[in-house]
Design brief:
single chain; about 190 residues; mainly beta; SH3 type barrels; OB fold (Dihydrolipoamide Acetyltransferase, E2P); 3 domains; six-stranded antiparallel beta sheet; five-stranded antiparallel beta sheet; about 0% helix; about 55% strand; flat
Length: about 190
């Protein structure tokens, strides 16, 4: 079993029955009292960030996480179907495990994290940016770009995105999947 001396950024550990990844850590050796490790951990399933202090020498349970490349096929209500890019095996994942399911388009490649011990999917990470086509938006006004004005637009996956006034139906845009915000217009 590992101790706090093995803690590093990106390490996945089991803490209080959940899986956590170490975001940052600091070994502290005060002049008086025992040494300790101050950490910031992120829950793998929920994304919640927790600050925790471990005493020096505390035993930790390191968990192995595997990241595999999958392609999105289709969804049935809350169940999303993915195909492994290496062996073409299919996997089914709940919508709650996907970071931005409304921006997921058929054929899109994603990375799915698996807990090695149980071989169960724990998280689906989308690419940072996706390129989607605008299916409907109100017509833009020419010359009205002096202000940072936005309007609603529907993309090909059905998601609503706020875009600048100069974007029209049929344009392709790049969307940040972390926030769901418009990033830039993509030239064809």
């Amino acid at each position: 079993m590992a101790t706090t001396a093995d803690i590093r950024n990106g390490l996945c550990i089991e803490h209080n029955g959940d899986l956590w990844t170490i975001i940052e850590f600091q070994h502290v050796k005060p002049g008086k009292g025992p040494a300790f490790v101050r950490t910031k951990m992120k829950n793998v399933r929920s994304g919640k960030v927790l600050s925790n202090t471990f005493t020096s020498g505390f035993k930790i349970n390191i968990q192995r996480i595997e990241h595999r490349s999958y392609q999105f096929l289709y969804n049935e209500e809350d169940l999303y179907h993915f195909m492994n890019n290496d062996d073409f095996e299919q996997t089914f994942i709940n919508e709650s495990m996907i970071s931005a399911p409304k921006l997921l388009k058929e054929g899109e490649n994603v990375t799915i994290a698996f807990h090695s011990e149980t071989d169960s999917a724990i998280l689906c990470e989308m690419p940072t940016y996706v390129v989607l086509e605008i299916t409907y938006t109100e017509p833009g006004e020419k010359g009205n770009t002096a202000t940072n004005a936005f309007k609603e637009a529907t993309v090909e996956t059905g998601a609503m995105v706020r875009v600048p006034l100069f974007i029209n139906t049929g344009d392709k845009i790049k969307i940040d999947t972390r926030s769901g915000d418009y990033s830039e217009r993509v030239k064809a």
